Amino acid sequence: MTREHTLERGLAVAVIAVCLALAGCATIYYSVWEKLGWEKRDLLRDDIEAVQKEQKEVGEQFTSALEKIRTIYGMKDGSLEEQYDALRAEYEAADSRAGKLRARINAVEEVAGDLFTEWERELGEITDTGLRAKSRHQLEQTRKRYALLAKAMHRSEQSVEPVLTKLKDHVLFLKHNLNAQAIGSLEGEVTSIEEDVSQLVADLQASIEKSDEFIKQLPN
To answer: Which among 9, 25, 31, 138 could bridge 19 via Cys, Cβ 3.0 to 4.6 Å?
Structure first.
């Protein structure tokens, strides 16, 4: 069950909204979720899954924009103005998706940091040395796996920017050059952006797979 579904059943929406708006309210924020049955590890798992969903949406959005560019550069007739408007809409949607992905990754980083800090602190409360050593080993292994995940997430995020910049370049060029001759001269540029989109999709998929690995090994 996602956090959205949990909120539909609870009365904590207003409290959580206020906590998000106030600085230094993390303790209350986590306390509210704990009362709803969500520990930090549950929040982290949910946030990682949200990143995965956003990464899939980003890949689909940029692939759609690439198809629109292919259509425009392959046109021999038809309304270039309409096609330009459609491409601009694709760019704006891609830019929005990129921002959402960045925010989702930041949320994962914040919760992961808070989880590891709490885990480290609570190790000192375990009096049994054997159990404490076992928990510390688990913490260290989880941190290592998370470091690999964070690297993959940020790589996918960084791959978005160059493609988004190129897409914007095409939109701005077409804005001022809506004629068949100018567009015909850019057919070769499709290959370049195709390669970038292909690499982006590969990086997004690699991050999604790394997320799956991390979630499977995250302690319940």
So the answer is: 25
Range of the domain at 12: 1-38
Q: Name residue, tokens 């375990």.
A: 126
Structure pTM?
0.84
What is the number of structural domains in the chain? Answer: 2
Shared-domain flag, residues 133 and 182: yes
Map tokens 């690297």 to a residue: 151
Do 104 and 3 lie in one domain? The reply is no
125 phi/psi in degrees, rounded to 5: -90, -10
Nearest to 69 by CA among 213, 217, 189, 203: 189
Q: Which residues of 94-117 are buried (b: 16+ CB within 10 A; e: fewer)?
A: beebbebbeebbebbeebbebbbe
Q: State pLDDT tens for residues 25-83.
A: 677 788 888 888 889 999 999 999 999 999 999 999 999 999 998 888 777 666 778 88
Are 152 and 87 members of one domain? yes
